[in-house]
Design a protein that fits this description.
Helix content: 55-70%
Shape: elongated
Strand content: under 5%
Number of helices: 4
Number of domains: 1
Largest sheet: none
Structural class: mainly alpha
Mean pLDDT: 88
């Protein structure tokens, strides 16, 4: 059951949430000093950009947790689970080289 969910989450990440060849950025790496300029001094635009940056920051954190869990499965457990976990890791890495140093 766990690997079925991992397969579905991998699919959502690859198809919807990760941008090809563009790593996720942490909130603290964003140019907050340019926020007003980037949002053209529009309060609604400013809020949308902040929400987007915060979402990406949280996605980066959760993505890392997910990859760590898949790595754990890929390095322990039975052979079928290891193969499925390795396939998930390969798909994630091919879609977005976010954590290529794992496992």
């Amino acid at each position: 059951m766990g690997l079925l969910i991992a397969d579905m989450l991998t699919e959502v990440l690859v198809k919807s949430l990760l941008r090809p060849n563009q790593p996720l950025r942490s909130f603290n790496k964003r140019p907050l000093s340019l926020l007003d300029e980037l949002s053209a001094n529009n309060p609604a635009g400013r809020r949308r950009r902040l929400v987007s940056w915060y979402f990406e920051d949280q996605l980066k954190y959760e993505y890392r947790s997910f990859v760590d869990a898949i790595c754990l499965i890929a390095t322990s457990g039975n052979e079928v689970d290891k193969i499925k976990a390795t396939i998930s890791l390969a798909r994630l890495l091919a879609a977005n080289p976010e954590h290529e140093e794992v496992c």
